[in-house]
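Repro:
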Amino acid sequence: MNFIDIKKIDYNLAVVFLAIWSERSVSKAADKLALSQSATSAALTRLRELCQDPLFIRMQGTMEPTSRAIAIQPAVEQSIVQLHQSLTQTIEFNPALSDRQFFIGMSDDFELAIAPRLSKKLAEQAPGVSLIYRQTNRHRVEQMLESGQIELAVIAGELSRPWLEETPLGESGYACVYNSRKWGIKYPIDLDEFLRIPHIRISFSGTSGEVDLHMKKLNRTRHVHTSLTHFSSLPYFLNEISSLSTIPEHAARVLCQHSELQQCPTPFDMGRYNVKILRRRTQQADPGLSWLINALILCGL
């Protein structure tokens, strides 16, 4: 059956057909369906036109089915049952048995801070599940969610869109990281020392970042020795060059845990920002994504 044929059929007629079949009476069928008798009679008329058959004939006070009605009744009833089951079935997700692939978008600072713990949790609770992490940021996340390249995204800051569902994950800020033992950089770092030491900048553009915006507000400048677009190589630069870098504190914490780097607060207030999990509202009923969002929340920042 093509879409043109489907447009010609009112599937409520199938329900009326089954009610008349069951009750053998138009008036009783109307009561069962909470319809007026005239509306039920009109539906029967349309059914007769559609099937080109009387379907039910009044005999001795009851509506008896014709051979045509008897022939189509099993298929009509089965179709209505299947339609009801399809529309009301509950989609389930069993993490222990699932072999689903999940596509998550996040910048590499969140990959450092969250992804290893999330992957560990899934290895324990959902061993057949695969996680595919894809690089994204505030400039690309909408397009990647809309196109289906990712199903969830972890982002910093505000990005409210009517078609996106937001789930709070936590908040973060900024910290300075450096190799104190090798370069003799003392804790804490004041503003003069901050400006004296060469900087390793990490930003999407490579030419400007959050620190530069705050420097402009302070009417001060810093010397950026090297600019990077990813966090993974930062420890190697800080070990080879007497320098420091100002990065999200969740990434700073992880880098310091797994290297010889130290961290300290920035010598000026850079504020705090919210971190959120995003997904399309059309996927709110997806139990697998809901389970994964809860796993992300349990991992935290």
